[in-house]
Design a protein that fits this description.
The chain is mainly alpha-helical. It is built from five helices and no strands. Helix 2 crosses helix 3 and helix 4 packs antiparallel against helix 5.
Length: about 110
Amino acid sequence: LMTFGLYFFASLILMIVGNILYVPQHYAYSQVEFLLCDTLDLGQAKPRQILKTSRFLMKGYKFQRFVLDLQLLPWYFLNWITFGIASFSILPYIQNNHIFFYRALLARKRRNG
């Protein structure tokens, strides 16, 4: 019984540390999809440059994106309790919020240099 508690506590600590390492990276690379779409239109998609640009864009804005995701959490919950039926109207709304965030981020970075 003692070893179970020890293993449980160790796995809990590992899970917390893993998430602490994962979440900032998730938000650092959250703009890759939109950057890829923009650069494919121009015909100059370079994977390494897209990753660098996403990290540059999100520098100082990860917490704002996190807050946006928290604000969208009730919509994800509504989608879950309707077994995905509400996704026809909810997912475009969520995706549009992410696109508006990306566009505002581009405008801010261009304005600030």
